[in-house]
Amino acid sequence: MAKDWVREAELLVEEVLDREAAEVDRSGVVPPGHFDALAERGFYGFPLSEGMTPDTMIDTASTLIGGCLATGFVWAQHLGALRAVAFADNAALRERYLARMTAGTYRCGVSYAGARSAPTLFVEAVDDGMAISGTAPFVTGWEYVDAVVMSVRVTDGAAESVATLLVPTQDASGVTVERIPLIAADASATVRLTLDRTFVSDEHVIAVKPLDEFQSGRGSLTDWINGALSLGVLSRCVRELKGQGIDAYDAQYAALRTRFAAAMGDAEATYALRADIAEAAVRAAAAGIVATGSRATLSHTTAERRMRQASFALVCTTREPIKDALLDRLRPVELG
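RE: above sequence
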């Protein structure tokens, strides 16, 4: 019988994440037990489980992220790394790391700084490996992960390509780390990395692909699954409003949620859906502020935290098409 991942996520939120989310927000630290609990219940490898469906993927991810944004944000990075290793061209690397990553005993972050239209991470071939130089502006989970899967722009040769590398964090040479304070999920230990010819051995090269092939294989699917972050924030805002006797947002949430499966693989539908959810989360968080009243002006109250989280979700993992769609929705209504 297939495991009920959504129910398992709900139980973890009820038993662990929700109880400690406010303290995580105040302290800026995720207890190690959060990540251990995710591993013990199989969530580090759940996307690879038999019978996984788009609905289960989104509902599970949004539930966990809604339970504790910082914990969920760190964990979600691992899922991107897991996908890269699971489909790696390097069979030896896959054999060495995939089982541990699936079990959650080897945890990873990600950086796509070399795959963007204006790349900031570059790599060149050297003896027995590659040397990375440049900047990774946002790397989440640095204090909690064993490695970072990095997409870096290859500078050798005439044609542009992207190398995807598994970069262990321990004893990495030539790396400068700067902690970045965030308005929400600050406990995620998000940092800016500056790399100066950081060596990565050939055995840690996941794949090297032409730029257009890499981008065509990543875009809309990544944007789609990243929508779980704003959906998770929205779901918590709606739930807390209902606890205050306000159910006006229930139908909107349900309608947005039902659009997810159909949007998978459709870039334009995904951009529109992501913008609609992010806008709805901000409006629901604002309603929570108003419903709470003057107490919401106090730092680290639930309503204040949700407002910060909804603002965070407006721009986190948001690319230009989603940003443009959001700005269109937030344009003032002309009075006439």
